[in-house]
UniProtKB/TrEMBL annotation:
Span of domain Thyroglobulin type-1: 19-81, 83-143
Organism for this UniProt entry: Coptotermes formosanus
PANTHER family, per database record: NIDOGEN-2, SECRETED MODULAR CALCIUM-BINDING PROTEIN
Location in or out of the cell: Secreted
Record protein name field: Thyroglobulin type-1 domain-containing protein
Keywords per UniProt: Disulfide bond, Repeat, Secreted
KW Secreted (keyword) present: yes
Lineage: Eukaryota, Metazoa, Ecdysozoa, Arthropoda, Hexapoda
Length: 276
């Protein structure tokens, strides 16, 4: 007996949902306010919420967890999330020092360097369209632009992060683990990540590490703090009507102008499947 993607055959020879599969969520979860896009039992790389005029699309991994990359739904035609997906795959394989660069919608930037070699890549797929050269010869590639790239491939935040990761790899090879490095959080375009640390406090930051208003939290909030509300208000201004928590996350409980309560998810979109 063959079951459709997202379902499996049980001992009674009937099809039952596979826990956590995308197809089951798409078929059975009628409360969720958006229908997941699936590739078989896996989540498709691009997931969109809201409606086309005002909604947004996000990159996710195969299990549906959000990863780097987003775009307004109305401008999503060329969005593939191929770069973000590839970096995630390499991380899952144990690579700590991946230096691929993804653009804001999770696609490949044109100039790519990793493992000491550089090439020009097609943005949607990452397919090379040039010679592959040593990193110290990247200026000879047709996609190299001095004004945008400068003399070094790595950007400010990731220069520190990758140096730390390579030291970790070297130390691990000699039996040492857990070196005491400062907290460093970068995005896949080389900019600073949304959650940054200063002393014993976390704060929400823009791409250049400047603080976003007063959004902050104690170090214990690290596992759940994402600053998505703070970032969206910084990027989209008054278009974001939902309220943020003090740590920069979206406040799950929201109210309409007439006082009706409703719930939103961590991306700021209404979701009847969660309790708030």
């Amino acid at each position: 007996m063959k079951c459709k993607p997202g379902y499996q055959c049980n001992n009674n020879m009937t099809c039952e949902p596979t826990s956590g599969s995308c197809q089951y969520e798409a078929d059975e979860n009628n409360h969720i306010s958006w229908r997941p896009r699936c590739n078989g039992s896996d989540y498709a790389p691009v997931q969109c919420k809201g409606d086309r005029p005002t909604g947004r699309c996000f990159c996710v991994d195969k299990k549906g967890n959000r990863i780097f990359g987003e775009q307004q739904w109305a401008m999503v035609e060329n969005m593939t999330c191929a770069c973000s997906r590839r970096v995630q795959e390499l991380w899952d394989q144990g690579r700590k020092d991946v230096t691929l660069h993804c653009d804001e919608q999770g696609n490949y930037e044109e100039l790519q360097c990793d493992n000491g070699i550089c090439w020009c890549a097609e943005e949607k797929t990452g397919t090379p369209f040039s010679r592959i050269l040593p990193e110290n010869m990247m200026t000879m590639l047709p996609c190299y632009e001095n004004a945008n790239i400068g003399s070094g491939y790595l950007r400010k935040c990731e220069s520190l992060l990758i140096a730390q990761k390579r030291i970790e790899i070297l130390m691990a090879a000699h039996g040492s683990i857990n070196p005491n490095f400062p907290y460093t959080n970068c995005e896949l375009d080389g900019s600073y990540g949304a959650v940054q640390m200063e002393g014993n406090q976390l704060f929400c930051a823009w791409k250049d590490k400047t603080r976003i208003e007063t959004y902050a939290a104690e170090l214990s909030a690290m596992p759940t703090m994402n600053c998505r509300c703070a970032l969206d208000r910084k990027m989209y201004g008054d278009k974001i009507q939902h309220h943020c928590q003090g740590n920069g996350n979206y406040m799950p409980q929201q109210y309409t102008n007439n006082g009706t309560k409703y719930c939103i998810d961590s991306d700021g979109f209404p979701d009847d499947s969660i309790s708030c």
